[in-house]
Amino acid sequence: MAFFETLYQELIGFLGIGQLIEMYQTGNYKALLTLNGIFSVISPVIPFLLLLEIVRALVYKKFKIEDYKMPFLIFVINRFISRFISIAAVAFCIGVLEKYALIGTTLKWYWFIYGYVVWEFSHFIYHYFGHKVRLFWCLHSTHHAPQTMNLSVTYAHFFLEAPYADVIRTSICILLGVNPPLLFIIMFIDGTWGSFIHVGENLIKDGRLGFLNRIVLTPSHHRVHHAKNPLYMDTNFCNLLNIWDKVFGTFQQEKKDMVIEYGISREMNPGNFWDVYFGELYCLWKDIRKAPGIKSKLLYIVMPPGWSHTGDHKTAKLVKQAFLQQEQH
Length: 329
Hints:
Mean pLDDT: 91
Low-confidence stretches: none
Order of helices and strands: HHHHHHHHHHHHHHH
Organism: Chitinophaga niastensis
Protein name: Sterol desaturase/sphingolipid hydroxylase (Fatty acid hydroxylase superfamily)
Pfam family, one: FA_hydroxylase
Number of strands: 0
Distance between the termini: 68 Å
Shape: globular
GO biological process, one term: lipid biosynthetic process
Radius of gyration: 21 Å
Strand content: under 5%
Subcellular location: Endomembrane system
Number of helices: 15
């Protein structure tokens, strides 16, 4: 019985309907008038869309178990090994850094705008490092390993990525004055949108979302981010507001005449958990072992993926430059 109770609780947690069930059982719906109550209504949206995406794929005979198997396996394993690590990391950063905040903010609309711009900057920094620092890429690559795009991809992360991401994002936001209540509201909104932009073509074929494509980061932009096409590599690091991608020159629109190729550039087996989860760490270890001298070994850790001590670099920047030069000829 304990097993089925645990399974039930995990299912309720995944669907995000625990608080809604509690309200139904108690008959107390006043919680819907609170911020937490509103969040409880929004939380099931992404799991519902994921189920709808799967059902629609089944109806149109486009469902492939391999498109969803690995993200779900990773989600289940992460639930056992990293359940509270990220929460602890956020709480630690707030406790240590809040007293050093440069300014003070409140739950006013103008501070919300300020906080969101700061949060998006902190997300850009974390995400940029995740692609430009080899060690961080080893953690982030699990998320890029799937070779199709669907809502289950949002659950495919190495268990240490969320803690290091939240340390960077929370530290920047707290130091720049985004107070914890405001930060938690922004994190919830951004997390919900960040999940939604992984929606696949089975549910939304054109991810541009009409006029929204000119205002915010849409599923189309995030499909570009997950692509291994040379033109698309290391672009669209933001989550909702595209301001910082435009500031730092990493913004890229989806081209209608270019078919997106998902996945990572190295040869890998997307159906092998060990390759998806630990493959990049293993490749880094092999490069460090064969590198001559301490300096080269350390550089493999901090330089971008594709850097080589031999000078035969194959970084995303060089691959893109070669592609653009070829396009001009």
